[in-house]
Amino acid sequence: MSQSPGSGTPGRAATPARPGATAGASGPSGPRRPADATGARDRRHSRPPSAAVYRRRRLVVLVGLLVVVGLVLALLAWVWPGFARSDAPAEPEPTVTVTADPPTPTLEPVARTGTTAFAQALPDTVLDLVLRSDSATDAWTAARALEAYQLEYADGEGDDATRVTVVAGQWPTSAEAEAAADDLVAAAGTPTEEGDVEVAGEVAGRYAVTDAGDGRATVTWRNDTAVLQATGPADVVTDVYAAFPL
């Protein structure tokens, strides 16, 4: 058998070129990417977050908390008007009342002269004033008084002692006592103060304070059938009236 010119010795067929390989290239192909490796895991996004990422996350959380707190405060200020105002009224402090002990007399009262129930009901002491004299009087006999007494109260001896004179009388009826009290008030002058006399919550008569001159005053009052009139220093005689048991 004849061979064509230029043919060589028979051998193995040439190996086809790998796809994508350039002609005449020699040596192994370039490095494979992870996507080119069968079964390989892509680690390009599996790195732990950096410190900067943590800082950004904390900042976002902090801003969110501040927004929530601001909304809560705004809601409280809207539904509770006094919450956001510094001029809201403060809670009142409890009031403590201190009551002083009543003054103690330093003298002994004189012996009583009247023996009737009315006379014995008149007090020996009023506040720090002590009975220094006690005598029956006919000053109110013309006004139809059944009985009347003049009593002198003082807080000491001598001219500088505080003194109050009380005239007390009793009438047969409340109407007669009221008429007598009205006459006494009219004779004393224009009242500077007046009001009801209450006993056990019920009105038992009237009282009136009138000016007696020289810093003195007179208090005239009626308690049912009893009429009393006290004269003394203006700053003392009203206290005597308030403390007098009749």
Automatic annotation (TrEMBL):
Keywords: Membrane, Transmembrane, Transmembrane helix. It comes from Cellulosimicrobium funkei. The keyword Transmembrane helix applies. This is Uncharacterized protein. Residues 1-50, 86-106 are annotated as: Disordered. Residues 10-32 have a biased composition (Low complexity). The chain crosses the membrane at residues 59-80. The lineage of its organism: Bacteria, Bacillati, Actinomycetota, Actinomycetes, Micrococcales.
